[in-house]
């Protein structure tokens, strides 16, 4: 019998609890990305790069109005107290991803064992605290201490995606996954939009870059308070979900059960699964293109196109706004086509991943060849990020298709491994652009083009959209000659394996 207080509280919510979770998940990702990317824009005001500009002449340099504000006054960067080279800045920006990669698999394990609520919440809370401490730490210890702090921030955010995948696998019916995926993971674009705009706003007019870290650190702590009150790991543990929604989710969601301890993760089968490797390649391509834009677009706007910091903050936000809107369109189209039988889940994932990989690859190359035509270059960057919105109804939710029961561990493995892109790209771009000239940046964009297109080809050939046999052996059984790696199984073999498993 459900307590009366639970019924009363459930009536206060106008929308179903799975959508409340979706909104809070969106804010979680938003919060994670604001704390992740705020340094990308702040570093342009932390570093005094006038010496390097004076020592190198670039014949292709764009007209420089970066020091002229909207009201015509001159900005002298009064808080630019550090003298870091481009490679040092790249190393600092990549530091986050060292920690981010380390805690992915442990985070997925903790989320599957103890639930995604506290795994996600405590991780982001720690990152918020580290963000608040950033100005104090960097002024005390310089680049070295900042790099270490960024590694710790990455460790706090590492469990974010695995924990979210676990929660979504427990809460979201299969036919709603593309839309919910677009909603939740679209929070990355909201974070980039909000983070870029607010960073530019807080630093405009000789504003102190330290305010950026204080603001977003407090924002993260506020989110944690609401997350703790409103969200739960599974529908069956939610204290004020309606009876109707609970019944619906238990009937439609594969992993809506209350068990927090499942069978051991089938790592051997996972690493020998061809669709998993295809997904990993797609993730590497996505992360390479995405981190190139997220980490280095503000520097390109400032160093090459010569926008001032206020304009850079606004123009950096617009491409992510386009990506956010397009992710909903792509998600709706994919769900609608699957529901109406126009194409299979597998085909939908391939189509949207291809759009999201090849489209941006072409656009960033065109942007680099636009030279100092700022309007055209920015238009191409906006188009590239808008097309990248297809990832969220493509490969980003593919882990839920392949392994709803082990979505956390699979996502942890995929995201943790693909994070190597986030480690490599900022430092590599720093090495490729020592003088931050247009020609040097063009080379960096060609490398990004090759990675995006190459990894997408692999995904198109070997991707899958069905639940894999190793995700639920009791249902699918072991394939024959599993020890030899065969992935085929006859119906008779499956039936034998089901009977064998039922006796365990």
TrEMBL record:
Q: Could you confirm whether the keyword Zinc-finger appears in this record?
A: no
Q: What is its main location?
A: membrane
Q: Where are the transmembrane segments?
A: 20-43, 91-111, 118-138, 144-169, 181-203, 209-230, 317-338, 350-369, 375-394, 406-429, 441-462
Region: Disordered; residue ranges are 482-504
Gene Ontology MF terms in the entry: symporter activity
Pfam families named in the record = MFS_1 (PF07690)
User: What InterPro entries would the database entry show?
Assistant: MFS, MFS_dom, MFS_Na/Anion_cotransporter, MFS_trans_sf
Q: Keywords, A to Z?
A: Membrane, Symport, Transmembrane, Transmembrane helix, Transport
Membrane topology for this entry?
Multi-pass membrane protein
One biological process term from GO is: monoatomic anion transport
Cellular component terms (Gene Ontology): membrane
Q: Which compartments does it reside in?
A: Membrane
Stated name of the protein: Major facilitator superfamily (MFS) profile domain-containing protein
Q: Which organism is it from?
A: Parnassius mnemosyne (clouded apollo)
């Amino acid at each position: 019998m459900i307590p009366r207080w639970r019924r009363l509280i459930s009536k206060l919510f106008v929308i179903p609890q799975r959508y409340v979770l979706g909104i809070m998940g969106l804010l979680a990702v938003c919060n994670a990305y604001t704390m992740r990317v705020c340094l990308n824009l702040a570093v342009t005001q932390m570093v005094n790069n006038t010496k390097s500009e004076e020592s190198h002449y670039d014949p292709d340099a764009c007209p420089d109005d970066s020091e002229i504000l909207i009201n015509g006054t001159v900005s002298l960067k009064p808080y630019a107290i550090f003298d870091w080279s481009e490679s040092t800045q790249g190393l600092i920006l990549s530091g986050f991803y060292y920690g981010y990669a380390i805690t992915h698999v442990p985070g997925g394990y903790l989320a599957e064992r103890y639930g995604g609520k506290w795994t996600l919440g405590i991780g982001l809370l720690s990152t918020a605290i580290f963000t608040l401490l950033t100005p104090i730490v960097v002024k005390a210890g310089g680049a070295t201490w900042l790099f270490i702090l960024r590694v710790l921030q990455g460790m706090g955010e590492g469990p974010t995606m695995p924990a979210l995948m676990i929660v979504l696998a427990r809460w979201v019916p299969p036919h709603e996954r593309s839309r919910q995926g677009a909603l939740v993971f679209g929070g990355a674009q909201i974070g980039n939009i909000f983070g870029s705009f607010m960073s530019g706003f807080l630093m405009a007019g000789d504003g102190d870059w330290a305010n950026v870290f204080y603001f977003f650190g407090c924002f993260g702590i506020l989110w944690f308070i609401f997350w703790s009150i409103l969200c739960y790991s599974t529908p069956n543990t939610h204290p004020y979900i309606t009876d109707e929604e609970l019944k619906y989710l238990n009937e439609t969601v594969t992993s809506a059960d209350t068990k927090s301890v499942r069978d051991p993760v089938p790592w051997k089968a996972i690493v020998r699964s061809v669709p998993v490797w295809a997904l990993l390649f797609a993730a590497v391509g996505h992360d390479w293109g995405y981190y190139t834009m997220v980490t280095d677009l503000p520097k390109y706007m400032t160093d090459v196109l010569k926008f001032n910091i206020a304009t850079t903050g606004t123009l950096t936000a617009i491409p992510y706004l386009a990506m956010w809107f397009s992710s909903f369109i792509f998600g709706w189209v994919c769900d609608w086509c699957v529901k109406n039988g126009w194409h299979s889940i597998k085909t939908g994932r391939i189509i949207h991943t291809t759009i999201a990989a090849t489209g941006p690859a072409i656009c960033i190359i065109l942007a680099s060849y636009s030279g100092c035509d700022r309007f055209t270059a920015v238009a191409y960057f906006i188009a590239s990020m808008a097309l990248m919105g297809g990832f969220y109804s493509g490969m980003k939710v593919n882990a839920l298709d392949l392994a709803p029961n082990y979505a956390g561990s699979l996502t942890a493995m995929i995201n943790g491994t693909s994070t190597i892109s986030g480690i490599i790209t900022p430092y590599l771009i720093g090495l490729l652009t020592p003088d931050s000239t247009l020609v040097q940046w063009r080379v960096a964009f060609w490398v990004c083009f090759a990675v995006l297109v190459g990894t997408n080809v692999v995904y198109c050939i070997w991707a899958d959209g069905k639940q894999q046999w190793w995700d639920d052996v009791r249902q699918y059984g072991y394939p024959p000659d599993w020890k030899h790696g065969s992935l085929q199984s006859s119906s008779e073999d499956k039936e034998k394996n089901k009977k064998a498993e039922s006796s365990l």
